[in-house]
Specification:
Blueprint (H helix, E strand, L loop, with lengths): L1 H20 L4 H20 L4 E12 L2 E10 L3 E11 L4 E4 L2 H17 L5 H7 L1 H4 L4 H4 L2 H9 L9
């Protein structure tokens, strides 16, 4: 009877060790998710200004992981994005909540607009496509138009 109980405990222990050993480790999971997320970022933003710097994954239970992606935007800031990850030995999928994704996209767009902060009027005066959107009465004299905009924000006229 004692031998049978010890045998059951031994088999149960071996099963638990084997089952735990079959799960991919979190570093591997992060490495597999990174190119998938980068592909989505490239598709969404269409440029090289938004890059996945790293992904940290932590096993939640079984084959489910929680992850955090650190994403560099415009070479200046690091933005985090929460991920839910499911992985087996060969495949990995991830998802974000719609709220987290929309918040992330909004933050990226704010970073993008920060580059032209305090230069909106310059864009309006210099860019013909933008300038043509204003009423004809304002477009009659570009210098006067630029002067009026300068009261809102600085304008630098090119000669």
């Amino acid at each position: 009877m004692k031998t049978q109980a010890i045998t059951k405990i031994l088999f149960l222990t071996l099963y638990c060790v084997f089952a735990a050993g079959c799960q991919p480790n979190p570093e591997t999971i992060g490495g597999k998710v990174q190119p998938l997320l980068q592909k989505k970022l490239d598709y969404t933003f269409g440029n090289d200004d938004v890059k996945v710097a790293s992904i940290l994954a932590i096993r939640e239970a079984g084959n489910k992981y929680q992850g955090v992606a650190n994403i560099t935007a415009f070479n200046t800031s690091v933005i985090t994005l929460k991920l839910a990850i499911v992985a087996d030995g060969n495949n990995v999928i991830y998802e974000t909540t719609p709220f987290d994704w929309l918040t992330f996209v909004g933050t990226i767009n704010q970073q993008k607009l920060k580059a032209i902060e305090d230069q909106y009027s310059n864009v309006a005066v210099i860019n013909n496509a933008v300038f043509s959107c204003f009423p004809k009465t304002l477009r009659q004299d570009r210098a006067v138009f630029a002067e009026r905009l300068a009261t809102v924000s600085p304008v630098q006229l090119e000669a």
